[in-house]
Recover the amino acids of this structure.
């Protein structure tokens, strides 16, 4: 007993140090965004801002136009999330509860593409989007991500767990199939929809390769694209501005995560896909 | 699927003869059901066809052609050149360098990430009782953040003079390297960041897996005199094998495509030391060499597919 208490004590110490080390980059980012660039270039670095200032944020939103990029990121993420919730649950329901010709083939096809990396499709996808004139537009950013196999997988698994009697009950009452889906099935899918919604929003907010390819002017930049290009241009050593930019990209997601962290972590544990 | 099968016996029981009206009703229900199912499936299928299946097929075709950016306006001037793009890829010194760099990133990064994830999961599962969810939350948080944003932050953390990491190393009398400016240390810098950002996913999955390790086995083993380390090695680890395999493969698939880290932090340098396969593919795309870029992306795809297939085989043998 005595030895186990002692071993627990040092385990807590190690874990505390570890969690502080993991959190350090965020703390550094937040504190750094409140420092002047001159202070950020001091050796040794200061911990607490000597003279905390919001100038970096002011410059970010006035001169660097981050308000507009924030708007673009939000619009894209909201529409992409809505599309995935609706279309993936529709197909998920059909695959889980209805019988129709071609069902097995369709399911196999969708699951077969679950792991196709984005880097495989972006070249022809760009050609396609360019041919229909959607390069450098928000629809060009949104359309390719409006549905994803992962959503179908998640919704099908969840709906399969619902009692099939629901369907018969609806039919006896004379409801059409679409009505049964909208009025009976969908309201019961709350937990699965929440998980899918959070994971999709997160993936869209952080998405980089495709927006980098399609967004070609500042009108359509999303936050990660703007920040990445910003960090490579003339602002490459303007650390205060860059750290403030990183904070603006990370903070909204961090707050959403802290609010819904249980749902997040359950989603990861049950599906194994981030 | 299950509903139709489950319903079938009851309706059969109800029907006596061939022309029974209830059977007719069932057939029309089936037709209506099939129609409704396709209506529900249609929006997904259209978008999926246009934005996933078509590009996957088109990418393969394009990889056998000399498509370039200027061909966007004159698609019929594209010529099929067979496997030329592929032979070119495997004699392209820069791409071979990118393959070696990617292998370095995967072969060092994946074991490091798994080790951190496993250590964190085991410590949180059995080691402690209080504040478990606080630690879990802390370790998981980097996973949700934008790689671009954390790459910008780490670029600053890894600075030679005023970087946090070299400052901390300095406390222990270690003179840290110029991480991102030194061709020998740039990749370790990127790997460190990737492990930091990603071990939380593995940890969560391992924590779920550890719930399946029966405590009775541990008790029996400790009665037989096995210490903690022996119990971990001979009970926990073997039972966790399928989960470890799963996490390894998903991590590997992600790391094989690493792109944002070198794009933001090093631009592939110094001296191409952090140029990844994805970054080189993107560059060729940027130069307008669409056919060549498509071939390079298919090589990445094949690597991912082979690893996935090997995982499924290994899992089948295990269970």
């Amino acid at each position: 007993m005595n030895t186990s208490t002692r071993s627990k004590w040092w385990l807590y110490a190690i874990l505390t140090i570890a969690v502080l080390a993991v959190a350090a980059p965020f703390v550094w980012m937040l504190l750094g965004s409140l420092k002047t660039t001159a202070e950020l270039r001091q050796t040794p670095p200061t911990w607490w801002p000597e003279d905390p200032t919001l100038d970096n944020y002011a410059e970010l939103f006035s001169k660097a136009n981050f308000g507009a990029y924030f708007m673009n990121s939000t619009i894209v993420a909201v529409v992409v999330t809505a599309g995935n919730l609706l279309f993936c649950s529709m197909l998920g329901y059909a695959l889980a509860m209805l019988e129709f010709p071609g069902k097995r083939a369709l399911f196999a096809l969708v699951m077969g593409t679950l792991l196709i990396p984005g880097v495989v499709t972006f070249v022809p996808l760009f050609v396609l989007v360019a041919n229909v004139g959607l390069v450098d537009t928000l629809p060009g950013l949104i359309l390719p991500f409006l549905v994803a196999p992962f959503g179908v997988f998640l919704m099908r698994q969840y709906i399969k767990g619902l009692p099939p009697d629901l369907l018969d009950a609806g039919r006896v009452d004379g409801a059409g199939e679409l009505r049964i889906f909208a009025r009976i099935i969908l309201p019961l899918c709350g937990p699965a929809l929440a998980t899918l919604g959070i994971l999709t929003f997160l993936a869209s907010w952080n998405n980089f390769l495709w927006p980098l390819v399609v967004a070609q002017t500042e009108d359509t930049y999303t936050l990660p694209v703007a920040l990445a290009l910003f960090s490579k241009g003339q602002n490459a050593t303007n650390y205060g501005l860059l750290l403030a930019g990183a904070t603006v990209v990370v903070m909204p997601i961090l707050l959403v995560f802290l609010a819904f962290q249980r749902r997040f972590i359950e989603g990861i544990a049950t599906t194994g896909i981030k | 699927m299950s509903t139709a099968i489950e319903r079938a016996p009851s309706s059969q029981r109800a029907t006596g003869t061939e022309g029974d009206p209830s059977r007719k009703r069932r057939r029309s229900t089936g037709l209506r059901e099939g129609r409704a199912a396709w209506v529900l499936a249609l929006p997904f299928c259209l978008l999926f066809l246009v934005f996933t299946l078509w590009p996957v097929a088109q990418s393969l075709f394009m990889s056998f052609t000399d498509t370039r950016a200027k061909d966007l306006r004159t698609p019929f001037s594209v010529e099929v050149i067979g496997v030329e793009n592929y032979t070119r890829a495997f004699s392209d010194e820069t791409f071979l360098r990118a393959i070696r760099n990617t292998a370095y990133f995967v072969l060092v990064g994946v074991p490091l990430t798994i080790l951190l994830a496993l250590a964190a999961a085991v410590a949180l599962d059995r080691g402690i009782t209080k504040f478990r969810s606080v630690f879990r939350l802390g370790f998981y948080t980097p996973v949700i953040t934008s790689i671009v944003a954390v790459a910008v932050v780490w670029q600053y953390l890894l600075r030679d003079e005023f970087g946090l990491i070299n400052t901390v190393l300095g406390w222990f009398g270690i003179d840290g390297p110029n991480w991102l400016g030194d061709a020998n240390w740039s990749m370790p810098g990127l790997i460190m960041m990737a492990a930091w950002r990603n071990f939380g996913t593995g940890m969560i999955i391992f924590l779920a897996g550890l719930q399946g390790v029966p405590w009775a086995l541990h008790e029996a083993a400790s009665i037989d005199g096995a210490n903690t380390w022996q119990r971990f090695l001979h009970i926990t680890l073997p039972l966790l094998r399928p989960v470890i395999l799963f996490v390894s493969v998903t991590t590997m698939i992600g790391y094989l495509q690493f792109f944002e880290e070198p794009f933001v932090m090093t631009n592939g340098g110094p001296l191409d030391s952090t140029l990844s396969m994805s970054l080189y593919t993107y560059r060729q795309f940027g130069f307008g060499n669409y056919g060549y870029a498509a071939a390079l992306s298919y090589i990445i795809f094949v690597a991912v597919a082979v690893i996935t297939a090997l995982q499924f085989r290994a899992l089948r043998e295990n269970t």
Summary: Chain B has a mean pLDDT of 84. Residues 245 and 314 of chain B are 8 Å apart (CA to CA). Chain B touches chain A through 100 residues (CB under 8 Å).
